[in-house]
Amino acid sequence: MAQDPPLTAAEKAQLVWLGARMCKRELAGPEVDQADLQAKFDRILDGARKRAAQNARSQ
Fold it and tell me: Which of 11, 39, 50, 58 has the most CB atoms at less than 10 Å from its CB?
């Protein structure tokens, strides 16, 4: 896996919240779909990677 980018406090809070929701759904049973939460999680990380790349280019 690629190295994770530095996250802002808001991004960290969102990822923790999504992680907690994913755990709650996992407890509900294996038939519960988590694809929507995983997509949100990935979207936040992709945005952080994009921001880190943009900051690296501008410096």
Answer: 11
